[in-house]
Structure formats: structure tokens, C-alpha cells
Amino acid sequence: MPTFTMNGQDIPFEKGDTIMRAAWRAGIEIPHYCWHPGLSVAANCRMCLVHIKTGRQGAMPIMKFDAKSGEYVPDTKPKLWPACQMGAQEGMDVTSESDDVKKAQASVQEFLLLNHPVDCPICDQAGECKLQDYWLEHQNSMKRKQTEPVHKPKGVKFGPTIVYDAERCIMCTRCIRVCDELVGDPVLDMRERGNRNEIVLSPGRELDHDYTLMTEHVCPVGALTSQDFRFKARVWFLKSAPGVCTGCATGCNTHVDYDPRYGKVYRLRPRDNMDVNKFWMCDDGMMTYREVHEDRVNVATLGRGDDRQAVLFEDAVDEAVEQLRRRDKSKVAVVLSAKASCEDNFALAKLAQVFGSEHVYLAANSGWEGDEILRSEDNNPNRAGAEKAYALAKGGLVEELDDLVSDSLGGDIEAVITLGAVSADIDLSALEKIDTVISLTSNDGALPRAASIVLPTTSWAETHGTFINKDGLTQTFKRAIHPAAGIKPAWEVLRELATALGHELDFESLKQLRASFAPPPMAPAQQSAQA
């Protein structure tokens, strides 16, 4: 592979690479604002200027202050080139650390901050703002401008999800390019010139496509803010765990940002994976973090309707075991979940195997509107994983949830164990005619409401797990926050049920469970530094 030298280090590059892209791929950051690895080159911020020491050298005329004469005299300086636009060449010698480059970076930084409001204390971007980072690294001097800054519109609602502050905007045009290039909806544009520039909406339009939160995510400063996250948390209090989006079968990789002090998830951000979602996520996917805290089931219950009452978890488990002992095990139906992890589905499928039950069903959300960008028409994260778990544990194909309703009416089923809380556009009232319906769930939904015994379990953010996406890629996610006291993963509750009923499921830990599940090899990680 050809290489060039930057700051004394050999940097490999591929055909068509720019200096910036090759350095980024090597894990080296050249200061930048407008460049993004997933967008076209704009080269308008000029923060990424570098000195190319090889080849024909250009000289730029300048006026330099002469201390002896006390006057400015003509002089020259090396011409600098934008690394985001300059193609890499074999044997090229580049520096991003020379005095000329550092002076240019400081000057660009000062220029961008001339009219920028000093409202870091109330800005949601504070703590992860490139203006803050680069000021400290490349300028680190007080503002010299003494005149009144240019004032622009503040708190402009671009649509249902995004608020725009024109005074903070540095005109990097990333948001415009996201709409134009990723979504294909040119709803944003730039008007005026110079220090009067601002981002505007197309006449009669709102920023309302399915990737609006990506415009906020790529903004390197605090100009675009999410109405959902706005003023809710300071990023320096947040920790991150690697997650997988539960919104659909694409399985976008995520950063799960949570506050460990309160055990609360505040947002999801896309985690780079070139094999799955590249750098992006859709709005619905980024908002799935709400599942962790909304409509949660935190207390075990017995009974239905007005007779439903909260009980201790241990008492609910004892009651579930007692009722299952009285049933014909071959007539115990199990309902896998296309939203639950492979581990949970495999444990339930193993339970069906030891029971000798032939009644296995799959609960899944009904479809939503997909697209050709990221959104799969299957809005379940693990349909493939649930089907594979059953195939490995027991063999055969799972039936749909509406088949459970017809089988219940036919009297072929004496008890049901359901996993998850996926909604379904079918009438589940037939389940109420079955005395024993046990629901293991983290959230409220149609299945828990039809159950006679509800056992709370951890959400995806409170446990480790595995999903298999629509392309067959196996992806793991890690626990971000700890669950409430006494709440366990569904696979662990199922193991306890099986043990109490005199059956062993061949695993006692997550490691043993995964070994028996034996998922296919993990897809190679495609991590990269955040642009």
C-alpha cells in the first residue's frame, strides 16, 4: 500500500484518499470542522490547513511587521493546503504541526469566534464542542474584538425535533449535506454572505424527515440542538456503553449515554460500523432509549384486570411454578420475542425443549415504513436471532402470534409463557381464557396485560445480550445501567423456573449460555474516532 509522511509518521492510503481521510483512518486527527467521513468535501472552514513540504512550493505574499523600522513590509509565507481536499500522493511529506500551520489554525479559530456568543454555560454542546476543544489547543488567547458582535436569530424551531441558534453557527454546512446527500431531501440551505450567513429552511417546509437528529449529531458546535435532549444533562456527567438499536432489523450500532449517578439513559448516538449503519441512525432509532424508562414493569403481579395485585417477586415465581406443575407440559406454549435478545430466546426455547412442547410462537411488532437508507421494514431487532435460537434449541419453525390465539380457542394449550412486551395488531383476549399465562417482560404491552402472572425482567440497557440483524450479523451489546433491586435478565428467571420444576437448562451463567447457544463469529468491528 502506498504511503506518505505526516509529522514524521508513515501514513498508508488507498486510491482516491485525501490527506484528511488517510490520517483519520490511521487514527490521527487533523483539526477540522466542516469535514465528515460520511459526507462530501466542502473545504470551507479552513481549519485543516497543512503544509506540504514536497513538490512545487507556493509562496503567498503577506505584510510582515518589521520591529526595527516599526512598519509593515512585504514578505512571503508557505502556501498551506486544506487536508480534506488535497489528494494523498506517494512520498508526500506533510506537516500539521509547523509554526505556519499552528498560526493559521489559531487565526481560523479566532475568526470563527469573533461573533460567537460566550454562552457555554447554557449550551448543550458544552463539553463536547469542537470550538471549545480547538480554542484550548490551537488558540488559547482572549478575544481581541472590542466591537458589538453580529446578532442573529436564536431558538429557531426548524421542526418537531431541532432548534437552531444562528449566532453559534460556523457555517460548516454539515447539516445541509446530511439532508442533501444522506436523505435526499434538500430542506436546508444557507443565505447571505460573510458574517451575515445563517442556515434557513426551504420556503414552506419544516425539518421533518426521518433523519433530522443526524443534523444535530454532526453539528460540531451548539448551533443545532435536539429538543429531546435540550437542557436535560451535562455531557461530562455521562458515561457510554456500546449498544445495538432496538428500533428495527438493521441493528444500528449505538453509544448508550447514561448518567451513572441516577442510573438513567439520556440519549443514543450512532456508533461507527461500516458493515451496518456507517455513521448514521434514524430518528426513531435514536429515540428508542425511552423504552428503558417508560412503561416499565418493575413489580411482579398476580391476577388480571381489577384483581391484579402487586406481590413479591419470589411469591410470583412460586405461584408460577405451582401452576405449571399442575399442567401437561406438552401443552405449555412458549412465545419467543423478536425484540428480546438471543440469550433470552434461547433459554425459553430450551425450556420448551425440556417440556416437550410443540407449541412455540413468535411475537413481533407489526411493520413500519422502511427506506433504502437504514430503516428496515421489519421493526424488530432480533427476529433472526429468535428464530435461530429456537432452531438451535429445539428445531423446526416458530408459528406466528395469531396462531396462538386460534390454538388457545381450540383447547390445545393449558399454559403460556411469554417473553417481552412486543405489541401486535391482533386481539389477545383469547389468552384470558387460559388460567396460567406467565409474562416475563421489562415493559408494559399487550402480552403482559393478557397475563395472569407478570415477572419483571431487565431491559436491554440493563443487561448484556446479542442480536442478529437482517443480514445475519451477530452483534453484542453491553449493560449500561444497573436494574432495580431484585430484577434479573429473562434467561436467568427462566433458569430458576426450570430448576424449580426439576429441569436443568445446561447453563448457570451468561458465558455458559452463550457457549451452548454458539452464535456465529462476530462481524469485524468497524470502530473509528468520532468525526
Q: Outline of this structure?
A:
The chain is α/β, with parallel strands linked by helices and 531 residues long. Helix content is 23%, strand content 21%. Helix 4 (174-183) packs across helix 5 (212-218), helix 8 (342-355) packs parallel to helix 9 (383-393) and helix 8 (342-355) packs across helix 13.
What does this structure look like?
Helix content is 23%, strand content 21%. With 531 residues, the protein is of the alpha/beta class. Among the domains are: 1-112, Ubiquitin-like (UB roll) (Roll), CATH 3.10.20; 300-517, 3-Layer(aba) Sandwich (Rossmann fold). It has helices at residues 19-25, 99-112, 130-139, 174-183, 212-218, 283-286, 313-325, 342-355, 383-393, 401-409, 446-450, 490-500, 510-517; strands spanning 3-6, 9-12, 49-52, 59-66, 71-78, 81-82, 93-95, 156-157, 162-164, 188-191, 198-201, 224-226, 239-244, 253-259, 264-270, 300-302, 309-311, 332-337, 360-363, 399-400, 415-419, 436-441, 453-456, 465-468, 474-477. The strands form 7 sheets. The chain has an 8-stranded mixed beta sheet.
Topology summary:
Layout: E1 3-6, E2 9-12, H1 19-25, E3 49-52, E4 59-66, E5 71-78, E6 81-82, E7 93-95, H2 99-112, H3 130-139, E8 156-157, E9 162-164, H4 174-183, E10 188-191, E11 198-201, H5 212-218, E12 224-226, E13 239-244, E14 253-259, E15 264-270, H6 283-286, E16 300-302, E17 309-311, H7 313-325, E18 332-337, H8 342-355, E19 360-363, H9 383-393, E20 399-400, H10 401-409, E21 415-419, E22 436-441, H11 446-450, E23 453-456, E24 465-468, E25 474-477, H12 490-500, H13 510-517
Parallel strand pairs: 1-7, 18-19, 18-21, 19-20, 21-22, 22-23
Antiparallel strand pairs: 1-2, 3-6, 3-7, 4-5, 8-9, 9-12, 10-11, 13-14, 14-15, 16-17, 16-23, 24-25
Helix pairs in contact: 2-3, 4-5, 8-9, 8-12, 8-13
